[in-house]
Specification:
The protein has 164 residues and is mostly helical. The longest helix is centred in the first third of the chain and has 16 residues.
């Protein structure tokens, strides 16, 4: 995959996929979701994808420190690579470092406002931090993009119950 395969976050391919997330047809939504993730992972072409794959391999071998280092290096190299920020957010969440995870997710949505995964991540972090109203706001943002994501609907209900 060369430079020509890199994805601009304003790429014309993204809008039709976002529309497909609103479809009544599950297969259409699933295909759009998969394609969006592919575009986001490939934002920086092969060099960016290789960085993410190396970090994932480290995680699979239990080398969390090296995975974090690789993701941080990737972010330094490509500060606008939303998926690198998102992968590090996932890592921090797994380590129960919710403030850092939330911060990285917030950077993701600054770079890519339609990144439903990062909005979901912000919601999860806010839940863990006990800020249920902020969690609801984030889950609603994710739901606006991906309205059939029942997990976000359920988490909104759970957070609402915890507010009372």
């Amino acid at each position: 995959m060369g430079t020509e395969d890199r994805v601009n976050m304003d790429d014309a391919r993204i809008q039709p996929l976002l529309a497909d997330l609103q479809s009544d047809t599950e297969a259409t939504r699933r295909q759009a979701t998969t394609r969006l993730w592919q575009l986001w992972f490939n934002q920086k072409g092969e060099p960016g994808m290789e960085c993410l794959q190396r970090a994932q391999a480290c995680l699979e071998f239990g080398d969390v420190v090296r995975a974090e280092q690789l993701l941080s290096e990737t972010i330094s190299r490509y500060p606008d690579f939303a998926e690198a920020w998102n992968r590090r957010a996932v890592l921090y969440y797994a380590l129960e470092d919710y403030p850092r995870s939330c911060s990285d997710c917030q950077r993701v949505v600054q770079l890519n406002p339609v990144h439903f995964g990062a909005w979901h991540g912000i919601g999860l972090c806010q839940m863990e931090l006990g800020d249920y109203s902020e969690a609801i706001t984030a889950f609603r943002q994710a739901l606006a993009i991906q309205p059939y994501a029942t997990t976000n609907q359920q988490l909104i209900l759970e957070c609402t119950l915890r507010l009372n």
